[in-house]
Every structure is written in structure tokens, then in C-alpha cells.
């Protein structure tokens, strides 16, 4: 008796192709932690490296992350992301330690100085948001981290604009904004 295995081979080939496509869409970041030689810097023999994400850190989309202002305690975590760019939405000069981190890791800084206000109904310059969106949408800048001081209002405003371009409904955009802004959600940032 002759058995035709052609359909089985096609099914197996399709399954392999699906697995390859899934692997291309999902990137697993593996981090090997080893203690450097004594006197080499970070952790000495027997010490563990700690990977602490910045305040309000989250993945927005493939290759796009958000957070509060990172400091030196967050540098080892940020290295695991393989960042190409950082979008800073604060007007203050970028700290020297952060600039050194960016330089040593080949990360490009895009700074859009949007003032952080406590009053409601503050004007956020439309042209500044438009320019920040251009940087954010350019995949040559990915992986990219967007941040402001706390990763809430200015960052939430830019992420909300991205979500609008992604055709999210407004209620979902506001829900995401409020998850990060918590009790301090500002009406002006949602409009």
C-alpha cells in the first residue's frame, strides 16, 4: 500500500515557516551576567549586577519604550534594550553622567524641551510634538526610549499622539494615559 506524504510535508513546511515568522516578530533579549575582573568597574567578584528599570518604564510598541528620567542606577537595565536613541522631553540640560552613558553606548539623544507645568490648560507647542513624532516614527531611531521627568504627562502626551496615529480610540488613549499619570492626570495633556 502506497501512502502519500506530500500533504504532511507541506504542513510541516508551513509550520516551520510560521515558527520562523514568529521568531522574527518576537525578539528575546538574553542577558548574561558575569562578574568582571577585580578593579574593572561595575561589580566585583561575587557581586551581582542589578537591572533596575527607570520609574514608570514600559514597552509602548515594538522598539519603543517609555519611562521617567533615567539615572545611573538604570544604566545596566537600559543597556539590555540595545537602544539607538533617546527622546527627552525635558528642557533642562542633560546630566553629564547620562551623556557619558549615551556616548559610550552609541545612543543618540533627541531633546525636545517641553516645559512641565502644574497648572491645567497649559499650551504644549504643536510643532514640537510634531517634530518629536517624526523622530519617534523613524524606525532608524529604534529601539528608542521616550522620557520626561516622571514618565507621566509629557511622555503620555507624545505616546497619546502616537496612539492616535495608530488609530486607537480616544477612550483607550485616555485609559493608557491615566494608568501612568495616576491621580495627577491633566486635562490639558489629554486634549
Give the helices and strands, then pairings:
Blueprint: H1 6-25, E1 58-61, E2 64-67, H2 75-79, E3 85-88, H3 96-104, E4 108-111, H4 126-137, E5 144-147, H5 153-165, H6 170-181
Helix pairs in contact: 5-6
Number of helices: 6
Determine the mean pLDDT.
77
Rg over CA atoms, rounded to whole Å, is 21 Å
Distance between the termini: 72 Å
Could you estimate the helical fraction of the residues in percent?
A: 25-40%
Largest sheet: 5 strands, mixed
Number of strands: 5
Order of helices and strands: HEEHEHEHEHH
What share of the residues does DSSP label as strand, in percent? 5-15%
Order of strands, main sheet, comes to: 1-2-5-3-4
Which overall shape is indicated by the principal axes computed on the Cα atoms? globular
Low-confidence stretches: 1-44
**Structural class assignment:** alpha/beta
Task: Give descriptors for this structure.
10% strand; five-stranded mixed sheet; 37% helix; 6 helices; alpha/beta; single chain; globular; 191 residues; disordered N terminus
Structure description:
- The protein has 191 residues and is an alpha/beta fold.
- The protein contains six helices and five strands; from the N terminus they run αββαβαβαβαα.
- The protein has helices at 6-25, 75-79, 96-104, 126-137, 153-165, 170-181, and strands at 58-61, 64-67, 85-88, 108-111, 144-147.
- It starts with 5 loop residues before the first helix and ends in a 10-residue tail after the last helix.
- Mean pLDDT is 77; it is low at 1-44.
Amino acid at each position: 500500500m502506497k501512502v502519500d506524504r506530500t500533504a504532511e510535508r507541506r504542513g510541516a513546511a508551513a509550520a516551520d515557516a510560521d515558527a520562523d515568522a514568529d521568531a522574527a516578530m518576537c525578539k528575546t533579549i538574553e542577558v548574561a551576567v558575569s562578574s568582571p575582573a577585580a578593579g574593572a568597574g561595575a561589580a566585583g567578584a561575587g557581586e551581582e549586577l542589578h537591572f533596575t528599570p527607570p520609574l514608570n518604564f514600559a514597552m509602548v510598541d515594538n522598539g519603543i519604550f517609555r519611562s521617567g528620567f533615567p539615572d545611573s542606577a538604570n544604566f545596566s537595565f537600559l543597556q539590555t534594550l540595545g537602544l539607538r536613541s533617546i527622546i527627552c522631553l525635558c528642557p533642562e540640560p542633560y546630566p553629564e553622567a547620562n551623556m557619558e552613558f549615551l556616548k559610550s553606548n552609541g545612543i543618540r539623544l533627541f531633546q525636545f524641551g517641553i516645559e512641565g507645568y502644574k497648572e491645567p490648560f497649559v499650551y504644549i507647542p504643536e510643532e514640537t510634538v510634531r517634530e518629536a513624532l517624526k523622530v519617534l516614527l523613524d524606525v532608524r531611531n529604534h529601539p528608542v526610549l521616550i522620557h520626561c521627568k516622571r514618565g507621566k504627562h509629557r511622555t503620555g502626551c507624545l505616546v497619546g499622539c502616537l496612539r492616535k496615529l495608530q488609530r486607537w480610540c480616544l477612550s483607550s488613549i485616555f485609559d493608557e494615559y491615566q494608568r501612568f499619570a495616576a491621580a495627577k492626570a491633566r486635562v490639558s495633556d489629554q486634549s
